[in-house]
Amino acid sequence: MQPEEFSELFPLFNAANPETLEWLLSIAAEHEYPADRAVLMEDAWGNAVFFVVSGWVKVRRLSGDDAVTLAILGRGDFFGEMAILDESPRSTDVIALSPVELLSISAQRFIQTLFKDAQLHHRMLQLMVKRLRQTNLRFQLRHQPPAVKLANTLVGLGENYGQPGEYGTEIYNIPFQDLADVTDIGVEETTKIMEKLNEKGWIKIDSANETLALVNQKQLSHLAGRV
């Protein structure tokens, strides 16, 4: 991967110095995982930051015998930064939802790079604040109807990770249980709402190709209260 491609794929690096990009690419390790494989395990010490080149992962927290999905990440995003910044064990698992390609950069070298490149440091803070705002939005939506909350989840995934497709913006066909977890509604409610959206033609689920197309993103945004 060339530095220009790296910068274009990962918003974190779009303000980094060219020298920083070349250095990071020279030390990055490549990884491939099949669907359902654990990428990171809870309580493991943070020794690297991971970048999603392709595919989808879910971040989950274990609660007794149950696992709750906290976030879904796609191409161009990253994870593992919190454990290296506060030098503590990871508090969540990361599981591959689909086959994924990742790049990893060791914790020590990533921290060194942050200190050397002020633009990268600032961009890192911006993206962490963005994640905090997204968490706050979920909190603000807690009393909204389930359909509004689920529409927000779908629109957010489309905006962050969607790719143009035949029928509209395409994302991964995320299992309903994971959608329910990140939306904070029940899986039965999620199933009913998704079936209704599919019947209305606002979304199109292609199980064979494991894609979910946001056919009518404008209507979904209206339902989510974003316009």
TrEMBL record:
Highest taxon, organism lineage: Bacteria
Pfam families: cNMP_binding (PF00027)
Alphabetized InterPro entries for the sequence: cNMP-bd_dom, cNMP-bd_dom_sf, Env_Response_Regulators, RmlC-like_jellyroll, WH-like_DNA-bd_sf, WH_DNA-bd_sf
SMART domains linked: cNMP
Annotated signal peptide: none
PROSITE patterns tied to this protein: CNMP_BINDING_3
Domain Cyclic nucleotide-binding: 12-131
Protein name in the entry: Crp/Fnr family transcriptional regulator
